[in-house]
Specification:
mainly alpha
């Protein structure tokens, strides 16, 4: 269990800093350029692991259309939305909204993948959205504020994550963790490169500089390369439920990094909203106890 908890804490620290690195990179790069750099460094890291481990990937037998779909919904689109949201929000608030991903996963499963939801799960979803409302601290006069725009963008990213998790489970179960991670990141790199090429080709040369190299190593190589392997290690050696505990730790990690490195203010509404979201996620994730078939003597 010691290795599992070490991996869990390590993953939360890595993913917590991702929001910090995005905020730093936004000072010199536009959102889609950050997505390209993140995908590129993650791909390079996983490719290096494949070389070291001498793994072979049969490219002819890969479900390419499904891989493209997962790459779009799990990488390119949510990362673009996250980067765009952080032009409006602090890294801390973005990370807190990210904690609603399990709630969106349940909702999407119910409406799109024929999953059933218990009453307790519906109640947990309701509580989670109350947490978002408290977190946003939206006033009637601020309905069109940048703060609300950022919250909607970040919520869109969590929706994408929830959708991608179901698509991955349904369509890519036959692939290994390393195959899924590497190929989706590779496809994401190509997709984001094409977008940057059409949107602002001159920005390609400014993606890798002395100022962006460090943040991209943290965001891409660690946050998108090593982090994937850590997460699936937790799922395999622990359980999906154990791995999902990172949802609770990442916002705490991000709040810490944001306050220390970026001097971001932590408001009371953020703490209360985070606590309510955690309660909602916890209620929604409680599984009913299985009834015992053992007959006890009177």
């Amino acid at each position: 269990m010691g290795k599992l908890y070490t991996a869990l804490i390590g993953l939360s620290l890595i993913w917590g800093t991702s929001f910090l690195f995005i905020k730093v990179l936004l000072t010199s790069l536009e959102p889609i350029s950050i997505v390209l750099g993140r995908c590129l460094f993650g791909t390079i890291m996983l490719f290096a692991i494949i070389i070291v481990k001498k793994k072979k990937i049969n490219l002819k037998k890969m479900p390419w259309f499904k891989l493209v779909l997962i790459a779009l919904t799990n990488n390119v689109l949510p990362w673009l939305l996250i980067c765009s949201s952080e032009t409006k929000l602090t890294s801390s608030m973005a990370s807190i909204i990210n904690a609603t991903t399990p709630i969106w996963t349940l909702i999407i499963g119910f409406f799109l993948f024929s999953s059933t939801l218990r009453k307790s799960q519906w109640f947990g979803i309701f509580v989670g959205f109350i947490g978002i409302f408290i977190l946003s601290d939206v006033k009637l006069g601020d309905l069109y504020s940048g703060n609300l725009t950022g919250i909607l963008l970040m919520t869109g990213a969590t929706f994408c994550y929830g959708l991608a998790s179901h698509l991955t489970k349904k369509h890519l179960a036959q692939l290994t963790v390393l195959e899924t991670s590497f190929l989706t990141l590779l496809i994401s790199t190509i997709m984001s490169f094409i977008i940057v090429l059409f949107a602002n080709p001159r920005s390609i040369a400014s993606i890798i500089t002395t100022e962006t190299l460090g943040p991209f190593i943290g965001l891409g190589a660690l946050g998108s390369g090593i982090a994937y392997l850590l997460f699936y290690y937790l799922v395999k050696k622990g359980s999906p439920e154990f791995a999902s505990l990172v949802t609770y730790l990442v916002p705490i990690s991000a709040l810490f990094w944001g306050a220390i490195a970026l001097r971001e203010e932590i408001h009371l509404s953020m703490i209360i909203g985070l606590a309510v979201i955690f309660i909602g996620v916890y209620i929604a994730s409680i599984k009913p106890k299985e009834k015992s078939n053992v007959t006890h003597a009177a």
